[in-house]
Amino acid sequence: MKKKAVFYHAGCPVCVSAEANVAKSLDHQTFDVETVHLGKDKSRIQEAERAGVKSVPALVIDGAPFHINFGASLADLKK
Amino acid sequence: MKKKAVFYHAGCPVCVSAEANVAKSLDHQTFDVETVHLGKDKSRIQEAERAGVKSVPALVIDGAPFHINFGASLADLKK
User: Fold this and answer.
1) Which of chain A's residues have a Cβ under 8 Å away from the Cβ of B21?
2) Which of A15, B9, B39, B42 lies at a C-alpha separation of 20 to 30 Å from B77?
3) Is this prediction's ipTM beyond 0.95?
4) How many Å apart are CA B64 and CA A33, to the nearest integer?
5) Which of B7, B17, B22, B55 to mutate to test the interface with A (most CBs of A within 10 A)?
6) For the purposes of burial, counting CB atoms within 10 Å of the CB of B50, is it exposed (0-12), middle (13-18) or buried (19 or more)?
7) Tens of pLDDT along B13-32?
8) What whole-number distance in Å separates Cα of residue B74 and Cα of residue B30?
9) Prediction pTM value
């Protein structure tokens, strides 16, 4: 079974670059990679928080959160 | 020809986790992935800086730097 990787972003320039370079560079034979725009899909923010996501862009690989650079804090997206 | 991805780290816990999860999850059919321990191999710090690396762990994918979480600043590694 494939492992799950979720790329959370908010459309920021850093996010777009991280998606194109990092998320798309994952081994798609090992991972199902989902991309979630938290600015548009606010219902997924809680799920991201539970996975340990503090800022976007972030990549949750097999449950472990990795923050890439620093884009926008989740607190700001809730406003 | 394969693209080049370099994972720079300094042996910190965040670095080890990022290497195991992010660097090793890249598509190795597309990328030659090199891991560089900047704490041990200080001669590579300049190269990392030129690529735009400000902190480790960082992944330079095809020349573009992506910082993962925040571990140790390059300035601290020079001490």
Assistant:
1) 61-62, 64, 66
2) A15
3) no
4) 21
5) B22
6) exposed
7) 888 888 989 999 999 999 99
8) 28
9) 0.83
